Known about the structure:
The chain contains 17 helices and 23 strands. The protein is of the alpha/beta class. The chain has three domains: 5-61 and 495-532, Urease, subunit C, domain 1; 75-197, Diaminopimelate Epimerase, Chain A, domain 1 (Roll); 259-466, Metal-dependent hydrolases (TIM Barrel, Alpha-Beta Barrel). The model is unreliable at 536-540 (pLDDT under 50).
Amino acid sequence: MKADIVFLNGEVMTVDEKDSIQQAIAIKGNKILAVGSNEELQAFASEGTRVINLNGKSLLPGIIDAHLHLILYGVFQLNLSCKEPDMQSMDALLTALKKRAANTPKGQWVRAWGFNERTIDEKRYPTLEELDSISTEHPVVITRTCGHIGVANSYALQLANIDAHTINPQGGSIEKDTDGNLTGRLIETAYMKMNETARYTPQEIQQAISIAQQHFIEAGITSVHEAGTFNQESYRLLQLASHSGDLKIRVYAMIGTLNDCKQFTLNMMEAGVITGTGNEFFKIGPAKLFTDGSSTGPTIATREGYTSNKQDHGILYYSEDEIYEVLGEAHKRGYQITVHAQGDRAIEMYLNVVEKALQEVPRENHRHRIEHAGIASPDLQERMKKLNIIPVPNPPFPYEFGESYLHNYGSRVNYMYPARDFIDAGIVAAAGSDAPITTCNPFIGIYTAVNRCMKNGTSFEEAQKINLLEAIRMYTYNGAYASFEETIKGSLEAGKLADLVVLDRSILKESEENLKDIQVELTMIDGEIVFERTKATARS
């Protein structure tokens, strides 16, 4: 059998059982035909075969980001980004918002995202008066970098039916000053509910899907685990994109939304839509609930008070009984289940739920997950191992947010996103960026996992360092395992789907300090080259 495409003279990192490194790989249709030496694979080339000379560059399995928000990432690209270097002061932010309002029809939303009060010059949130000065004819909302907190102007608050007398929703807070007046700041579920008012149009969501997947493909990401959309409508549009062929990357979609995830999950369960339903491009994932808040907020639920405020233990969305009411039932019905759990208190509650569910209805190979597993202390790791839980930590988080973690959690950073501990314990952990909360660039994540340092170069609990091959496995095979798909993708082996990425250099020969600078030259999904950075890739 002759191949359609053969890659030769490379560093083919198979991520197979032995982490073997080969020279060449052959592709036929949408599958891997063979992997081996140059000599062996030359035999698969014919006159019609495209032969690509890698010139010693690395070829990896397609990156699997096991936790990000595809639609949220895409719609955020339509808005002002507070992460830009020229947006690091209150004046710059307000000026940019006023300019955006001036070019936006009256009554339409003016939005910004990625705001971080810790990094701007003034070290504070904008006031309600400042937001009202932007416009009284446009609803304005600014999303904090964590995605769990927002600030809105009076017009937006009015549209959301929020005033000084509005009762705080369960798991959230509508901030007021000492006189009982609104500040515009909405925390956790209060902010999530604002998303229902500040809805995006179907056309904007379709545009968002297109933008997001292109960014991911250029980063070498071929599969994503969608960790939650806005509502049923955005979930429906994502499925339609897969049916029409507009969805170019593979999606494992968690059953959960950013607002009122409990009701959405219950609705899906009643509809009988089960984990694993779908095809190789769109598949239903685990039933998911939020249990606590944001690691940078900080609003995560902790067993001990924050180092920065001993009286603050964070926010819980639901009680343990409420979590069990939904996810215990989901387990009984055969779903994979998961939760957003960042703090050790939230993680402990969820582990109690899983333990009870397994005692009542034992199930082999359930592969229940924990999204983030932020403060995963040794006792919690031991329980994860016993319960066969798959944690999905976020390797790039310390790179961008490490300083706030040190400030808020002190010595607990010793076991934040503890990849080394997970691997040593034999716990299968997959990696997720949580984009757009931080960068989707997997090589920033790999760099941080290997070096365990922050953007400024300061170390961040080096005992949790892992080696390069371990990091690559978290971003490939383990991601496939977390979605029950390791037999069809996640490694480069004959018969598996032809999802792969070619880098601009040898990753094995690159210094650990420069891993973050690696770029993707080519991305292939389903045997089709969907991205080439340059046509200068040498060919014979």
